[in-house]
Amino acid sequence: MFGKNSNPRKSVMRNETPGQPNINIISAGSVFTGTMKSKSDLRISGTVEGEVNADGKCIVSESGQITGDLITKEADIAGTIKGELKVSNRLILRSSAKIIGDIHTKVLMVEEGAHIDGSCKMGDHVSSNSGSKSDSGSKSIEQNQKGAWKKEPEKSTGA
Predict the structure, then answer these.
(1) In this predicted structure, what is the pLDDT of residue 22?
(2) Residues with Cβ < 8 Å from 104, sequence gap 6 or more?
(3) Is residue 13 part of a domain?
(4) Is the pTM of this model over 0.85?
């Protein structure tokens, strides 16, 4: 009566509704142990003990904590991370952020008050999917600062 495809199973709503973001949430008070992989965005307000790998954006709220590496495309961090950060696009560190480990990112935005205890490498070569630590052509913040603050040699006037 309604056509050939009147199978009721085809009308079941899918998890991936167009226009609605898919966000995985680790709530405050929750503890996740192990390797976490996500094809979509991720919000961590609880504790993750292990590697986090997200294809989308990872938000770590002020109460959030990761003990392990974070590999993602974009990140907005207000909590604590004890491990290496590999962010292939933009990393935002909020004033309450505490990072204990090395940072590899294309773009870094840091609010006053954020704490970083590790090295930072920036540039287009950073990839969230690369497991290698090869960073040819990159400069750490310290190297860039040394170059930026290098005093020009004084020229003698020969008087």
Answers:
(1) 79
(2) 84, 85, 86, 87, 120, 121, 122, 126, 135
(3) no
(4) no
